[in-house]
Amino acid sequence: MKVTSFVSLSLLAGTLQAATIHTKVAILGGGVSGISASLNLTLAGIDDFVLIEARDVLGGRAQDVKFGHNVTIEMGCNWVQALGTNPINLLSQKYNMKTVPTDYEDIDYIDHHGRHVNGSKEQQAFSDASDRMYEQALKRAKNNLVDISSRTALSLAGWIPRTPLEKAIEYFGYDWESGEDPERSSDVFGILNDEANYNGKFGHDLEGDRMNIDQRGFKYMFLQEAERVFKKKNDPRLKLGTTVKSIAYDKKGVTITTDKDTIIADYAISTFSVGVLQHRDVEWKPELPDWKMEGIFGFHLTTYTKIFMNFDRQFWSDHEFTLYAHPTSRGLFSVWQNLNAPGYFPKGTKDNVFMVTVTQDYAHMVEAMTDEQVKDQLMATLRKMYPDETIPEPTDFKFPRWHSDPLFRGSYSNWPIGEVDQHHENMKAPLHNRVFFAGEAMSKDYYGYLQGGWVAGEEAAISVVQCIKKKKCPVATYYPEIVNAKMKGNTVLKKRAYIE
Ligand SMILES: Cc1cc2nc3c(=O)[nH]c(=O)nc-3n(C[C@H](O)[C@H](O)[C@H](O)COP(=O)(O)OP(=O)(O)OC[C@H]3O[C@@H](n4cnc5c(N)ncnc54)[C@H](O)[C@@H]3O)c2cc1C
Ligand SMILES: *[C@@H]1O[C@H](CO)[C@@H](O)[C@H](O)[C@H]1NC(C)=O
Ligand SMILES: *[C@@H]1O[C@H](CO)[C@@H](O)[C@H](O)[C@H]1NC(C)=O
Ligand SMILES: *[C@@H]1O[C@H](CO)[C@@H](O)[C@H](O)[C@H]1NC(C)=O
């Protein structure tokens, strides 16, 4: 990294030096993907790079805060999902993170009248249908059949929810994981993602997600990894509190303009979320090509919003989950988590935290409301859920607004129906072998998860290392046009059969 020139800008308060910095690689974004890319460059012996992050801290969507008297809560990612050699699981072990297994069947069901009921029959029916759907989707993928929505797939598997309880069970089993409803989600790609995470390279049958309850915060392990790269305090290569405004690229290199300085790099690795790319929060010069934008706009970044309430006493059950079958609105304030479950918070904690999650439209809805309005709605819901209780006012209340945040624009990606393989390849394809794309959404196998971000960062770095060391980048391809299955000459037409 070389600082070559200074231009003085007069500001109201004084003079700011706007520098032009020359470097080999600019890593854009300091979430897990940017950290992983910087680590991989370092391990490959490349130290001439900068990492630019708008926030004052690394970690991106791994974000914890102190809440109540003194507990750490996770506003973003919370689980190690898929064990085995999943790099996230390995990091969790390396740093001895305190995690607990999650028992997704440990549920207190509350029906739409506020009665505690036994939902195990409905739960079993949903779980059996999900298993059938899984098998069918793998067959579909193997036989190269056209994708269908997860709603169609669930219906074909015999699951047709009718009651509020059945809808709540489905919401918990589907949306609460995928971040979006089965109507918008791809059946085939969704199941392939499950298969890659839980039954692929990391090992087989890796069920048993572990929730981070480490009071150092989940991001601790990523910050530790970043310290392997940025060993010295105030390493000038780490540019925190610096926002990228525009990225100009051509065959010769990349010029990045930030709110502080200009960075001229041979290569750039963008790790911005697909939501940031969709919302045009960063300017591209020239504009990203249409074939790429079609893939980007077609993908989904969901919003998964955890709302935390702290009370001076626990009036809910000891189960890990409480599932409320909302009488009118599927998924509204339905999935509640007891953060006081045995073994979660440190002994002697004075806080009683009940957390509810909303996704998709309801997540957008709460973001547009004031905290006070959301709190009122939640109190009204709790009174319906526990008609015989006097519900105390919460002593603390907090939730993040992921969707409106221009640095994120949502929580994690979901593969929607309508996006095909080629779209995803186009979304990820580099620009002139100068700008490479990482971030969780770009991982075809592990999108949506921390490992998606980690692996995509590593892959982009490996490409850049090859460009630098071999003076020749890996061969990259894209699809200028994506044609549909009914094109002439396509075997699909030949498969027409007679009704007998
Ligand atoms: C609520 C929630 C729950 C989740 N739960 C889980 C879970 O349990 N398990 C799991 O595996 N995954 C989970 N995830 C997903 C996981 O957190 C992400 O996959 C992962 O953190 C993404 O990392 P990334 O580096 O790809 O992206 P980010 O973390 O988004 O990193 C991109 C970085 O770019 C920065 N940036 C953006 N714009 C600019 C700009 N203009 N200039 C400079 N910097 C900029 C951002 O500040 C950010 O730090 C969850 C996410 C959320 C939000
Ligand atoms: C980094 O890249 C190398 C190849 O250059 C690879 O072998 C390695 O596993 C990658 N990841 C890490 C974390 O080193
Ligand atoms: C808060 O919690 C942390 C970690 O659990 C602990 O180290 C610290 O002493 C606590 N502080 C107070 C004021 O209780
Ligand atoms: C719910 O019903 C099932 C049988 O359908 C039974 O095995 C289970 O123990 C019941 N659960 C509770 C919590 O009563």
From TrEMBL:
GO terms for biological process: polyamine catabolic process. The keyword Isomerase does not apply. The keyword Acetylation does not apply. One of its GO terms (molecular function) is oxidoreductase activity. InterPro entries: Amino_oxidase (IPR002937), FAD/NAD-bd_sf (IPR036188), Flavin_monoamine_oxidase (IPR050281). Residues 32-461 form the Amine oxidase domain. Keywords: Signal. Residues 1-18 form the signal peptide. It comes from the Eukaryota. This is Amine oxidase domain-containing protein. It comes from Absidia glauca (Pin mould).
